[in-house]
Write a structure and sequence with these properties.
By secondary structure, the protein is α/β, with parallel strands linked by helices. It has a single domain, classed as Phosphoglycerate mutase-like (Rossmann fold, 3-Layer(aba) Sandwich). Helices cover 31% and strands 23% of the residues. β2, α2 and β3 form a beta-alpha-beta unit.
Length: 163
């Protein structure tokens, strides 16, 4: 059974605190605002999320919480996966997507560059330089075959490519 995964890069984050470990950087006010806007746009398109997967970085967790609130998801529908932050290869994210239980038909995965962009590039003809903060891309997934096709990035132009 196919399902949809929305890839979302975390919101714009702060570099203002010297010495703060990367994993602990919070969202900036503009990152919060843009994330709320993108989540509302997604909801207004009629998307009904079942769950959110996020890295354990503060900025990604904050992004996931904003999405959870916009979609009125229960707190238990946000899953923290440290591998998303530590991912070094597209296959790291691919394994996470393949492990999503069958009960979920539409999910959002909040992650980081460069692997999130590489993941999107792997499945699209578009010459996506990099996913911008709070950008969302829709991915179609086949449960048995794994990744099957990627649709154009939301709010941008693109073409479908079978893989």
């Amino acid at each position: 059974m196919p399902f949809i995964v929305y890839l979302m890069r975390h919101g714009k984050s702060s570099w203002e605190v010297p010495g703060l470990p990367d994993r602990e950087r919070p969202l900036l006010p503009q990152g919060i605002e843009r994330t709320e806007k993108r989540a509302r746009q997604l909801r207004e398109r009629g998307v009904q999320l079942d769950a959110v997967w996020t890295s354990d970085a503060v900025r990604a967790a904050q992004t996931a919480e904003i999405v959870r609130n916009v979609f009125d998801l229960a707190k238990g529908r946000v899953f923290v996966e440290p591998v998303i932050y530590d991912a070094e290869h597209v296959n790291d994210l691919r394994r996470i997507v393949r492990s999503i239980p069958d009960e979920f038909e539409t999910v959002l995965l909040v992650g980081h560059n460069p692997v999130l962009t590489e993941f999107a590039q792997r499945f699209t003809y578009d010459l996506l330089d990099e996913m911008k903060t709070s950008q969302i891309i829709e991915v179609g997934v086949g449960r048995e075959e794994g990744m099957r096709q990627v649709y154009c990035p939301l709010w941008e132009t693109g073409r479908v490519r079978d893989v």
